[in-house]
Amino acid sequence: MSNDAMDPGRRTWIGIACGAGAIGTVATAVPFVSSFAPSERAKAAGAAVEVDISDLKVGEMATVEWRGKPVWILRRSPEQLASLKKTEPLVADPQSKRNPNELTPEYARNEHRSRKPELLVAVGICSHLGCSPTAKLQAGAQPSLPDDWQGGFFCPCHGSTFDLAGRVFKNKPAPDNLEVPPHIYLSDSRLLIGEDKQA
Ligand code: FES
User: Which of 155, 162, 170, 178 to mutate to test the pocket of ligand 1 (most atoms within 8 A of CB)?
Assistant: First the structure.
């Protein structure tokens, strides 16, 4: 993990528009993955970000920055993948049919919302007013969440919740699922975020 990647000045998306100021950071269990770093200017212009995910363990989530936004990479366990079947009837857009061109590339329009079933890659920005939700990966009852919580993400700004595929639950302020950014695997351990075609 590079110290540079942890620079709080680069994490200005956290808490955007969150009057409560309840989220100062991404959950502490969420490490930044060190990645080959394009220049600041290139990143601002939207350069793709290559990430080494070889150290990401089952059940762990990492956050990298792409176009000034947090992108989550979660290596889901078999139990977490299985939870998607349970949440399917509870989410508002289970098949990711809303705004597919903006939110869900064709290769992620499946039950996992991902290229590889175990790996979720999603932009960590709430589709309501742009806060960054908090990872609540642990299943089970906990404050602000339903007793049958299967693990997912909670936006403290206005209470929207998302499952472990970034699908928004029904009757929440957020209108849409979390965005799946363009991405491609260059190898088993190298993920490129921001492009989905190999040069
Ligand atoms: S910004 Fe309002 S619920 Fe997330």
Answer: 155
